[in-house]
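Q: Convert this sequence to structure tokens.
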Amino acid sequence: MSAEQVEAAIEAMPVKERRKFARWFDAHRHELIDAADDFALTGEQRAELLSRKKAFLADPSIAEPWAGTPEKIRQHLHARRAKKTSTSRR
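A:
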């Protein structure tokens, strides 16, 4: 079955079944990612992710919502570049 066929089959499912599939996919995501060479994590990266997951599960209030995060990242990078540029001009 091709990816396009799977996509069409998922889109044809009732919403309740798609939600069930989404939960299944999320639970098995690591198997798919670990199997793909493009997404291979180092042991250090895997340990960091597991540590962050453990911290979040212990205290979900530490999480920040995604809304606005890309803009915050852009602002942070812009400030770092500006600082680096001003430092290198001295």
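The chain has a mean pLDDT of 87.
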